[in-house]
Amino acid sequence: MSDVGDIVLVVDDAPRSLGALCRELEEHGYTVLVASDGESALERLELVTPDAVLLDALMPGLDGFETCRRLKSNPAWSHIPVIFMTGLSETDHIVKAFGAGGVDYVVKPVRTPEVLARLAAHVRNARAARMARDAIDIGGHGVLMVDAHRRIAWRSPRAAAMVGEFFGGDDSACAEWLDKSVAAGGELHTFTRGGHTISARQLGAAGLGETMWLLGMRGDDAPSASRLATALLTPRETEVLSWIAKGKTNRDVGDILGMSPRTVNKHLEHVFEKLGVETRAAAAALASRELG
Hints:
Layout: E1 7-11, H1 19-27, E2 31-35, H2 38-47, E3 52-56, H3 64-73, E4 82-86, H4 91-99, E5 104-107, H5 112-139, E6 142-146, E7 152-155, H6 157-167, H7 171-184, E8 188-193, E9 196-207, E10 210-217, H8 227-230, H9 235-245, H10 250-257, H11 261-275, H12 280-291
Parallel strand pairs: 1-2, 1-3, 3-4, 4-5
Antiparallel strand pairs: 6-7, 6-10, 8-9, 9-10
């Protein structure tokens, strides 16, 4: 069964053909939203953030592949798992779906029990990952993941800023330094450039062949100014953030401030970037903590 509040957006140009699936989803506790094309799906996302998207690949206008790419390019939506549902079963199409940002692929005619099992797993995994990222974002920690091929697979906003400052944004140079640090032994490793020092501590294995590192800078333990105070938010961005922290949706904020939900979302994108967070929940939690 779905956790209370799980929302699924079903995107298909022939939604009636998926009536049985939608009924099963609702019987399993999901709230089901339906869009008949890519453009209307993106418009739905301006109003509500679902826990997962079931997406047809072939649709008139904006197809599923491009819809997924646009969804994943927006920081506010990038965490949403997208499961492709399509009659296309060739390897090239499957590769294209994963390349666009999909996490799974089911072939029509869909088998409802299979879709339910896959959906539950992806929603659960995405929620766990999102909660971990929110905790890292809110705390302002410099955390990054190195995969089995010694490449940086993920980094928090704080870690990204440090990689940019010390390695010119070159992930491979940072990964090489970390690799040499492992070979050198010890727990804490440092790198100095321009009179500033960055440190790295290996936190251990975090997945299959993945290693987690905690980055820091000299003086990080010293008291720091409020992140909101140093983010240089505009008055309008501050207003939007304050209402988001109160649990308002984009539509609610738009009605309150006299702007469209799309404009609210654009303000949020700037807020995420300035605060150095990746998700709506992290921004709201940070605002709640500092604004009271």
